[in-house]
Design goal:
Helices cover 0% and strands 69% of the residues. By secondary structure, the protein is mostly beta strands. The two termini are 32 Å apart.
Length: 101
């Protein structure tokens, strides 16, 4: 079996994540068989939200009360999928990689 990937996209630098699409042509020489085709889609979004609060209260000449809070929330989304394309009809035949979050 011989796989020939062709890169169908590139990550967009302006977008908050990455998008990639690959088309594969699988050719067979031993035993001879009709070529088949696969698609692979990869996506990635990384979103981070940060929040911080600082408070300072002078209590006297030599003393100060300082209180702070810092919080961070990460919301990462990975969307990977793929499928096999029927060589005769060029219609998606069966999913190979399930979409996952």
């Amino acid at each position: 079996m011989h796989c020939s990937p062709s890169f169908g996209g590139r990550p967009d630098a302006a977008a908050p994540g990455e998008r990639e699409h690959y088309d594969y042509t699988n050719t067979y020489s031993v035993p001879p068989a009709v070529p088949n085709y696969d698609d692979l889609n990869l996506s990635l979004d990384l979103l981070t939200t940060e929040f911080s609060v600082d408070y300072s209260l002078p209590l006297s000449k030599d003393r100060t009360l300082k209180v702070g809070l810092d919080a961070q929330k990460d919301n990462d989304d990975f969307g990977n999928s793929g499928d096999t394309v029927d060589p005769a009809t060029r219609i998606t035949a069966s999913p190979k990689i399930p979409r996952c979050h």
